[in-house]
Amino acid sequence: MRFAFRADPRRGMTAKPAMLRAGAVLVLLAAWQLIAMVRIWPPVFVPEPAAVWRQLVRTSTEGYSGYTLAEHLLVSLRRILLGCLYGVTGGIALGLLIGIVPTVRTLLGPLVTFVRTLPPLAYLSLLVIWFGIEEEPKIWLLLLASLPPVAVATAEAVRGVHEDYLNAARSLGASRWEVPFRVVLPSALPEIITGIRVAVGVAYTTVVAAETVNGVPGIGGMVRDAQRYNQTDVVILGIVVIGLSGLLIDFLLQTLDRRLVPWRGRG
Amino acid sequence: MPSPGAEAVEVRGVTRSFRGKRALGPVDLVVEPGAFVTLVGPSGCGKSTLLGLIAGFARPSDGSLRAFGEPVGGPDPSRGVVFQEPRLFPWLSVAANVAFGLRSLPKAARRERVAELLELTGLAEAGRLRPYELSGGMRQRAAIARALAPRPRLLLMDEPFAALDAFTRERMQDEVRALWQRTGTTVLFVTHSVDEAVYLGTRVVALSGSPGVIVLDERSKLPALEHPRADPGFAELRERLTEVVRAAAQVRNGPVTS
């Protein structure tokens, strides 16, 4: 029997959808090229795909604003990695506390929800005042952006752990202090990883915006500089690179999810 | 240390109330070591509540609980629990689930004990699998193996076969009977199936509903027989128990109009 909807995500992409996707990209490129060639708008608004390609080659070899494209990207990725590392670690710890200790929930729950509803750029100015314009405020910003989604997801998951699991562990001799680590955290893992995916997404959108303040090197800084000099082809290149690397990061996180949580949806 | 001559379970005047409304008791129940006690009653009569109290998951509102002479102060590895759902830890393999309660053992002894338990429950080939890769019956077997791992003196089973299909259920009943005979563990088995209660119990206890109190408590020789269901006593006890449980359900839900 064949199902139109494939439930098992582990099965690889078959040839047909892959070709369809490649075809869609080609059609899009062709349309872009056509629009650029007929010059409805001047090249400073709509540069040709070829111009963007030339910029790709140039920024990769000669560099832009003193750094190559790879350097810009790596600096941004490093910021995301560091910020998310702190944010995720703090988020899991905080979520665990909020989920387990009612007093902490009462004290910190509303604060976490408040920070989560804020757009990260809203407190960027404050962080610049506190930490200057170098790396520190950027890492802090990403930390603050990625912590709340993970904390909220963890806290919800911790509270949702079925009491049978806790009772089972306790009657198998696990102490009060062991239960959070041996039972609560692992059973909250699926939601925590979903929280991490959200957090990394938020961090990624945030870092590009944050790099508009002293962001070179950095992919956001590169786009910002290009905008100042009306180098639309570099701006578009930056956008494409940001989009593709974002897809790659989410793909890696999905792979991690399947590795760490093979029981998702089959518990 | 538990005293050797003590009763396996001593429940004295135990009640349990939720929001001021009494759900259970007062219950008095003394279980001798080695017994297989089946606890049957209509749904909502508090049989699972009683089991949870003996397991130490909750405190009674009134009365006292002892297991092997020791007051019940919380969950303890000497009282193993099997739930209605297997509740295996999905992030662990079957073998690691069984090993969960064996942390204090040295590694080699732990591995040996796990192999022994998997063998005992017919899961020798399944140790490396994850719980979601097992059938319902195998999952419940793994849950039993996990509960037996720390060698509990008392095994508490809360409707363990309720979610299984009829064939698997009958096979599991025979297996749990064989396990009980081999390990000598005292078993307290909650069920809402009268047939299951009569088939397995060396002692059959019935609870009435709301608040749950004991309305029948009988010893039975049936589980010792080779084919309990073929014995005339089986149908007789089942008939009587059915009447008692039905009457208890009517008290709870009001008279049935038919």
From TrEMBL, chain A:
It comes from Acrocarpospora macrocephala. It comes from the Bacteria. Belongs to the binding-protein-dependent transport system permease family. The keyword Cell membrane applies. GO terms for biological process: alkanesulfonate transmembrane transport; cellular response to sulfur starvation. This is Putative ABC transporter, permease protein. It holds the Pfam family BPD_transp_1. Keywords: Cell membrane, Membrane, Transmembrane, Transmembrane helix, Transport. PROSITE patterns: ABC_TM1 (PS50928). One of its GO terms (cellular component) is plasma membrane. It is found in: Cell membrane. The chain crosses the membrane at residues 20-41, 80-101, 113-133, 139-158, 234-253. It is a multi-pass membrane protein.
From TrEMBL, chain B:
GO terms for molecular function: ATP binding; ATP hydrolysis activity. Pfam families: ABC_tran. Keywords: ATP-binding, Nucleotide-binding, Transport. InterPro entries: AAA+_ATPase, ABC_transporter-like_ATP-bd, ABC_transporter-like_CS, ABC_transporter_ATP-bind, P-loop_NTPase. It comes from the Bacteria. Residues 9-234 form the ABC transporter domain. PANTHER family: ALIPHATIC SULFONATES IMPORT ATP-BINDING PROTEIN SSUB, TAURINE IMPORT ATP-BINDING PROTEIN-RELATED. This is ABC transporter ATP-binding protein. It comes from Acrocarpospora macrocephala. The lineage of its organism: Bacteria, Bacillati, Actinomycetota, Actinomycetes, Streptosporangiales.
